[in-house]
């Protein structure tokens, strides 16, 4: 009897584990879905950061980093002037690493959100600087005073290869704005990081990259081809998946979906309208969009991954080689986990996606909102990755200005040079470290932010920051 009871408990435990980590079959590849983080409130953006952490916005105004292995969440900032109203609040985010000292976590972080100006809801784009010691600092308004409402405010952000920025905007429930070339709503905008107009935009002096959009909710770029794709909410019909081409018109509000009605055909011919690659009726509230091309899931090579809110689906959209046509869309699931809004892919080929069940239109579970990980656990990369450089152990940091700090390293295999420079790049102190040396005392220095640089004879460098207070 005791053996039977024990066996039963093991079977029940196995069944619970399977229910908690469901699997999905994609050809011969088995994908496992697991929960990474719970207890969130309407995640809006999910990015794989240059620091190999997940970065997330929540609609109420919080920006966080999430450890992709443990799920531990580190809040970075809650933006005080975010106004969350209906579908509006803190929305899209994009991260632009610094061109200098790339080994040091220092980025421009762009976020778009709605705020209240003299009692009226508006939308703006703000750039923060992120420093590993100082956090999110120095906010600068890049673009503001865009009309906004509690619906149709977009907005996703995307950094292009030339370090310009794309920003999608909804029509703010004013359909006339989408076709007005002077208005910034109902558009995909392209701007320099400082908010100025790129010299090669389709119209000189204008931020407008494309027009005729209702409410774009996803944007992605394929590096190999340079092609850009966007998902867009339709009204009562024709959610769209668009290929974004500079200077093109996407039809709204005259054209919904394809140019297949007489009035639409005339408008399309006269206004350089680009038809969608595909459209969905009934609508699914298509949202986050990303690109997949990793050997961990070979069946998804050269494929767009799309999540949707109303349908609650993860949809695969295979591309042809040139990227201008789609194969047959397919849902991996639909409705199983509620509303899905954001999605991204890690360099290891794992897919991260978030629910949006606390956005006022879902039926949240006790652990919602959540971030899931979808992965092929049987995948092992064949290429050998280079070993990471030794990790700094700098203590204390921040450090008192009038006291030395202690730097600890794993044993060095060779001699190395260590130098301390100030914020203007002036060398204040240096020392040659012996092979196998494991520690060094750094001198006291005035309050400020300092850079430590370790150089080995083979040309390798490591960096760390020291904050003196």
From TrEMBL:
Protein name in the entry: PQQ-dependent sugar dehydrogenase
InterPro entries per record: 6-blade_b-propeller_TolB-like (IPR011042), Glc/Sorbosone_DH (IPR012938), Quinoprot_gluc/sorb_DH_b-prop (IPR011041), Secre_tail (IPR026444)
Signal peptide boundaries: 1-19
Keywords, comma-separated and alphabetical: Signal
NCBIfam families: Por_Secre_tail
Organism in which the protein naturally occurs: Hymenobacter edaphi
Domain Glucose/Sorbosone dehydrogenase, chain residue ranges per copy: 40-361
The keyword Transcription regulation is annotated on this UniProt entry: no
SUPFAM superfamilies xrefs: Soluble quinoprotein glucose dehydrogenase
Pfam families, alphabetized: GSDH
